[in-house]
Amino acid sequence: MKLAGISFYPVKSTAGHEVTEAEVQPWGLAGDRRYLITDERGAVLTARQEPRLLACVPVLDGGVLTLTGPHAEPLTVVPTAAMSTVHMGGVAVEVTDCGDAAAAWLSGLAGRPVRLKWLDDPTRRPVNPLYGRPDDRVSLADAFPLLLTTTASLARLNDWIAETALELGEEPRALPMRRFRPNVVIDGVAEPFAEDEWKRLRIGEVEFRVTKGCDRCVLTTVDTETYRKGKEPLRTLARHRKREGKVWFGINLIPDLVPGTFGRIAQGDPVVLL
């Protein structure tokens, strides 16, 4: 098995970037989901509610974030000193406001008042203690530092989607991996969904613990080109991958790093189960 793809998402629920190598930090890939968007009430806003957020392409250069999109000129983000609180998974997290200019830029894209927030200190948010250790941390991802998927599982899912479409007289359409927004994609897995049983693995020089499978939401149904919601993959996952009232695709990881240390991964790195 080998590492076939690496992606990170500077702003939660906006466009991501595929890279050939990345630094792995205890709370996730460097630059991954350190920013998020809140609505007029201060609640976290995602592309589940506003799919047009996926049209925002955030670019990180030397730690400086620039927002690009189809509706306005690029904007360089300048965080302020103002702090506020967002709630994620029942945990209150202190974040820094990124100013009125960023708020206006994103509000123009979303079509409603929103603000951009920055997690200036990534050690601030703990992982759910049911699945992690006391010193485990996560940035602004939904729950865990990294999400892993495999090409074998996507191929099987796309076969199932084609079967469903033919049964219903619809045009089959394979889904790209970016619908699932993984951080790492593994190739060469012998069986689809073999990752369901993994407990520990090493990618290149970095070891990871598997916490749990990833239950999927309506965001996976949003076409990343048209920003319209469809029925897949949730319709087909519900036929083949439903348990505990949820549907599943991919697994969540926590890097097994000594506090204060980092690692690196690169495309082509060997993947070894431990």
Automatic annotation (TrEMBL):
<dbReference type="GO" id="GO:0030170">
    <property type="term" value="F:pyridoxal phosphate binding"/>
</dbReference>
<dbReference type="InterPro" id="IPR011037">
    <property type="entry name" value="Pyrv_Knase-like_insert_dom_sf"/>
</dbReference>
<dbReference type="Pfam" id="PF03476">
    <property type="entry name" value="MOSC_N"/>
</dbReference>
<protein>
    <recommendedName>
        <fullName>MOSC domain-containing protein</fullName>
    </recommendedName>
</protein>
<dbReference type="InterPro" id="IPR005302">
    <property type="entry name" value="MoCF_Sase_C"/>
</dbReference>
<dbReference type="InterPro" id="IPR005303">
    <property type="entry name" value="MOCOS_middle"/>
</dbReference>
<dbReference type="GO" id="GO:0030151">
    <property type="term" value="F:molybdenum ion binding"/>
</dbReference>
<feature type="domain" description="MOSC">
    <location>
        <begin position="119"/>
        <end position="274"/>
    </location>
</feature>
<dbReference type="GO" id="GO:0003824">
    <property type="term" value="F:catalytic activity"/>
</dbReference>
<dbReference type="Pfam" id="PF03473">
    <property type="entry name" value="MOSC"/>
</dbReference>
